[in-house]
Design a protein that fits this description.
Low-confidence stretches: none
Structural class: alpha/beta
Strand content: 15-25%
Distance between the termini: 33 Å
Order of helices and strands: EEEHEEHEHHHHEHEHEEHHHEE
Largest sheet: 8 strands, mixed
Strand order of the largest sheet: 6-7-8-3-9-10-12-11
Helix content: 25-40%
Mean pLDDT: 90
Radius of gyration: 21 Å
């Protein structure tokens, strides 16, 4: 059996202020094997990015509080690590591609200097010339000529900036790469290039990837497994084939039904009824019950647990087998 080198168990994260408590992540759980890619899919506000920050130990405190859970990475619980130990892991063993490449780069430093900075933090003892060479090699790895290493971010297009951000994330050959909506701000052609780049680098470097997105097409393109996230919980998970071909949860079905279909030209787009659950005022029972067309009295009173409906296919629903 392949080693599960990342396991997130019952992760709970809250944002507490004097005005209210926001329950951002509510028992999140998933696992990942070496060299595997998992997609975390859900609407904006579902808790996907907060989960990523929890893995990296970057939840802003205050107001963020990790209330409960375990995050095992290479057999050790990251939540029990000191800040000094986490700094060694961040950027070294675990890297993150943040959502917006326009704001992720320092505008007053050349892109090469920003890559060098990351390498110098985790790879001591090299000469300045060796650090410069490493920066240029990383840019070439993501398809940017080495000669552009000493230019500034404003001299690059959006797609090129995203490639620079990926080069920074991969500079220390991390075991785990977290990609937080890496194609959101890019046009379709550049999106395809970035996804192909991530796929190629994953295979070349044997890097495991957490792909955070709301785009089911992106997941189909690059992921082995998928977890559908709603209101800070996984509501359905399994291999991409299991979930896409045998979707069981009403929310998963709603996401797929809302995808535009070119064969139904002129017909109204389907939408999931209602609004995403307010994380500061979650409903009693199943978090999806106020929007679910199949909700019963049991759904309004009790919270369903994840259960296995087929080997490796997990669903959080009382009625999924009856749908």
């Amino acid at each position: 059996m392949a080693e599960k080198f990342l396991e997130v168990k019952n992760l709970r994260i809250e944002y507490r202020t004097e005005a209210e408590t926001v329950y951002a992540v509510n028992g999140m759980g998933f696992d990942l094997e070496k060299g595997q890619t998992i997609g975390l899919v859900g609407e904006t506000g579902a808790g996907k990015s907060t989960t990523a920050l929890g893995i990296l130990g970057l939840v802003p405190d205050p107001p963020g509080v990790v209330v409960d859970g375990e995050i095992f990475f290479e057999g050790e619980d990251l939540l029990k690590k000191s800040e000094k130990e986490l700094r060694e892991i961040r950027g070294g063993k675990i890297s993150m591609i943040f959502q917006d490449p326009m704001t992720a780069l320092n505008p007053v430093m050349t892109v090469g200097a920003q890559i060098m900075e990351v390498v110098q933090l985790h790879e001591k003892g090299l000469s300045k010339q060796e650090y410069r060479k490493k920066a240029e090699e990383m840019l070439e790895l993501v398809g940017i000529p080495a000669g552009r290493a000493w230019e500034y971010p404003h001299q690059f297009s959006g797609g090129m900036k995203q490639r620079v951000v990926i080069a920074i994330a991969l500079a220390n050959n991390p075991a785990l790469l977290i990609a937080d909506e890496p194609t959101t701000a890019l046009d379709v052609t550049i999106q395809a290039q970035i996804l192909e780049l991530i796929n190629n680098l994953k295979e070349k470097l044997n890097t495991s990837v957490i792909m955070i997105t709301h785009d089911l097409g992106v997941v189909a393109e690059v992921c082995d497994k998928v977890s559908i996230v709603y209101a800070g919980q996984v509501v359905e998970s399994g291999t991409v084939v299991d979930v896409y071909d045998h979707m069981m949860h009403p929310y998963t079905q709603g996401l797929f039904d809302s995808i535009p279909d070119i064969s139904t030209d002129g017909k109204e787009l389907k939408a999931i009824a209602g609004q995403i659950a307010d994380p500061a005022n979650l409903p009693v029972g199943c978090n999806f019950s106020p929007r679910c067309p199949h909700a019963t009295e049991e759904c309004m009173k009790s919270e369903p647990q994840l259960r296995e409906v087929a080997p490796g296919h997990m669903v959080r629903c009382f009625n999924c087998t009856k749908l």
